[in-house]
Write the structure tokens for this entry.
Amino acid sequence: MQELTRPFLRMMARLRALRALDGSQDPISREASPFLILVATVLALLLAILEVDQNNAVLQSLGLMGDEFSVDPIFKSP
């Protein structure tokens, strides 16, 4: 167990040292960059798409998603 905690503690110390180099210590004065917000939004959308794709059969059984060809047969070509 001790072998696992030492690398973790070293990693945490390095992260704290990098945080100290950030410059602004006031958390209110820091703002998120627009690129970071864009990346987070894109990743959240990709995660949502993957979750829907992975649970497609469950959602169809609950009636929340239609089949691929859920168009009324009258409107389909012969």
